[in-house]
Write a structure and sequence with these properties.
The structure is a single chain. Helix 4 packs antiparallel against helix 5, helix 4 runs antiparallel to helix 7 and helix 6 runs antiparallel to helix 7. This protein folds into two domains: 98 residues, Flavocytochrome B2, Chain A, domain 1 (Roll), CATH 3.10.120; 131 residues, Four Helix Bundle (Hemerythrin (Met), subunit A) (Up-down Bundle), CATH 1.20.120. The chain contains seven helices and six strands.
């Protein structure tokens, strides 16, 4: 062990263009250049070499013992206190996350399934209502919309928090797609619920407004499934490589 690096120096060991791939966790810097899982300086298409991955490791399915397999090359010099974020709220949040690491990622997966189910079920029961003419199916679709009104915003809030805490709100294509579709979904859900409340017999009405209502309700299922797909890409990136060690 002979290197004492700061964050700026560490970033030059990014594993690209033949450079060594170093990663840091808990102040320790290890050389992962020999791992096929870090080819090109990327791991799981999400974690980049040349960075301090301590926070990522806290939320990973494994601990520091995985990095202990690789050569220890140095330590990370702490960031000067003068340039550390002064936010008291952020400091309190950091302490909370350090005590309960599950809070880094779990609130969003724990809440996002509800808006997905409510929106898909609203579409599903609306289709059944349109095919059978049953008011029971239409009522069920309506109550699913009411549930979505409450849970879609909750899913958005926890998603944005997860993005801020784990990815430092950096621009990411899947997140951008999710944000735009989620904002559109919450507007459509609120509109449909309000419209259906104001005009109870609307779905069965053979009017232009009735057809617009049904078209929007049918569109909810594919919209939330696309959102779920891009969320899955963040958690389980598609990796076509064959690296196994």
């Amino acid at each position: 062990m002979d290197k004492d690096l700061d964050a700026s120096s560490l970033s030059s060991f990014d594993g690209k263009d033949g450079r060594p791939a170093y990663v840091c966790a808990c102040g320790r810097i290890v050389d992962v250049s020999g791992s096929r899982l870090w080819m090109g300086g990327m791991h799981m298409r999400r974690h980049a070499a040349g960075k301090d991955l301590t926070l990522d490791l806290n939320a990973a399915p494994h601990g520091m013992e995985v990095l202990d397999r690789y050569p220890l090359v140095g330590t990370l010099r702490p960031m000067p206190a003068a340039v550390r974020p002064p936010s008291v709220l952020w400091a309190l949040l950091a302490r909370l996350l350090a005590r309960w690491p599950l809070l880094r990622r779990h609130p969003h997966p724990a809440t996002v399934h509800f808006p997905i189910v409510f929106c898909v079920c609203a579409s599903f029961f609306s289709v059944l209502s349109a095919l059978t003419g049953s008011r029971s199916f239409d009522e069920t679709a309506y109550y699913c919309l009411i549930g979505a009104v409450f849970f879609v915003p909750l899913g958005i809030i926890t998603g944005l928090a997860t993005w801020r805490i784990n990815y430092l709100a950096r621009p990411m294509r899947p997140v951008s797609i999710k944000k735009h579709l989620s904002c559109a979904t919450v507007v459509v859900v609120a509109f449909l619920a309000a419209l259906r409340t104001a005009v109870p017999g609307l779905p069965a009405a053979m009017t232009a407004l009735g057809f617009v209502y049904l078209a929007l309700v049918f569109a909810l299922a594919p919209a939330v499934l696309i959102i779920a797909y891009y969320g899955g890409l963040l958690t389980f990136p598609v990796d076509t490589g064959k690296a196994t060690s």
